[in-house]
Structure formats: structure tokens, C-alpha cells
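Section 3.1: Structural characterization of target chains.
Under the original work plan, the team committed to producing a structural model for every single-chain target entering the pipeline before any wet-lab resources were allocated. The record below documents one such target. The sequence was received from the expression subgroup and is listed exactly as submitted; it comprises 343 residues.
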Amino acid sequence: MKTLEDCVEAALSELSAEVRAQFAADPKAVLRGTFGLKVQLAEHLSEQRGDGGACDGVSFLQDGVILYAPTPRSRRENFTLAHELGHWLVNQNPAIYDWLVEQPEPNEELETICDRIAQRLLLLQADIDDVLHGAPVEARHVLDLYGRSNASLPACAIALASRLPGLGAVLIIDLDGDLDAARVRYASVRPDPERGWPKVHPWPGHAVPAGHPLQRIRTGGAIRRRSFWEMPWGERADFYLDAVEFRDRWVVVMVDTDLWGAERFHPPAPREFDQRPEREVRCCGQTRKVRGYPCPKCDEVPCPDCGKCRCDREDAELVMCAGDCFLMFRPSLLVNGLCEECR
């Protein structure tokens, strides 16, 4: 595995073309009949996928159970079931998890993989080609794809985010009638093909930054221009955006280069990427390369499974003296539970 798309392909390779076609026609029947999973409606589902997953569901894969929230008169339910099948498929492929533990944002990468699996199960590549006609991805293309398919709006966003030539994202932002309370409902981020995830990127739950150009869009309106995004803790970076208003939502394409010729002047915009060093870690019965900040004492990156560096593992082996000193020692230095000073 070298890229996120490699992981998506590996997961989908577990399904035959026949099963994929059957799933698109009747997701519940395939989950129950082909995979033997229990699919249950949860009217008051309060637990949902974390880390930005686009579905209203949760699965307990060891028990073979998928719970999903009902979405009457909406296509979102099918996307939820496809996303949860994505988690099941990833669970069948240890190589995908080996790739994930080496990534700077493994949870976000996992949810992105499952989102893209869901999109691939629900949308044909031919439909995407017909919508784009070889043109750069625009916000209106998300609506065009939504109009000609049975896929949900997030599924259409994912499909088009995968067609971005470089770093970018396709967002769905809920307004709920209040511009000041606008928040990202869904974000499909395409990391830079070479440099990976940027430090600043939109993600579900993020509030639209104060003074952002998006707040100038009105009902049925559109905007295309140079803009920015700001993380909740204040870190900020420039982007170009193309956006339309749709049913009290903004559908937005954000990219690091001006795909549409929206501006005449393109000032350089330095962008920071995750630059954590890669180190070899021997822990939890495995030897692997992991990205992370090394411990200042032992210079070892913490294990992605147990979270411990060499110092932590050594400290975990210490035993408290049974005497009056209450100090910690290696077991070999204690005799009958007592250190040299207390004996």
C-alpha cells in the first residue's frame, strides 16, 4: 500500500462485480444475505462515526451488527450502509491497517477510505465523467451529479474530490438559517499527492471562519474567488474556492491552485504540511515505521498501538518498594519486596 487510493482498491477487490451491482440495488439485502451482518434501524441513534465519517451509523463488527439512523425521503441511508460496509472490508485486510498506522492522521484517513468505498459502491465512474466533460471540478458539478443519480450529496462530494488534480476539498456546509452558525457538515479532503495532509484543512464540525467570503452568498447565489480557511485554534492558510447555495446549504470546492482562473494575481501562499519524522518502532510484537514526534528522553516515537515509547515501557516495569521509602525500582533490585536502603 502506497496511497489512500491503493487502500480503497484493495478493500473493493474483495467484492465481485456482481456483488457490487447487487449492493447498489439493495444494500440491506446484500449486507444480510452475502455478508451475514445484522442490519438494524435505530430510531434514536445517538452514537455516530467519529473523525468526520459522513454516515449516520455505527457498526459493532465483532458482533456483526450495523445500526443506522433512518433518513426518510433521503438517499443518505444507503450511503451510511455503504460506509459501514467499508469498515467491514477494511477489517478484512491487515495490510490497510499497516498503512494506516504509518499515517499522520490515521483516524481521518480511515474515515476517508470508508467514505470513498461508499462512493464507489453507489456511483459509476461513467456518471462522473459525463458530468465533468473534462472540465475542472466545480461546485455545480456536485449538484449535477446529485441530480442524475441515486447517491447522497456526500457521496457526490467524495466522487468529485477524488478528481481534484492536487490538494483540495469538497465541502457541504449547513446554514440552518443562520450565517453566523454555519458549520461544515461534511468534507472530502484530497491530500497533496506528494506532501500529504496540510496542517490547515476543513473538517466536519468546523465553524465557517468569521469574515469568510462564503457568508456573502445568498439563496441561489454563487461565488468564485481567492479565499482562506482557519482551524479552530486560529491557524490559517489560503485557498481558492468555488461555491453555490443549495437548499440552505453551501456546496464548496476548495483548492490550493486557481483551477478556474478566478483571479488575475496569484501571490505565493506558503503552506505547512505534517512533517513529523519517521522512525522504526519495535513494540507490541511488531517492527514497523511510524510517523510521530520522538520522546525527548529516549528519542523513540511512541508505539501506535500502546502509545508507549521506550521510557514508558521501562517505567511500566518498575515496582514500588514495600518499605518506607515509597520509591520505584526494577524488580531485580528488590529482595523480599524491599530495596537496599529499606532492608
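Residues 1-122 form a domain with the Arc Repressor Mutant, subunit A fold (CATH 1.10.10.2910).
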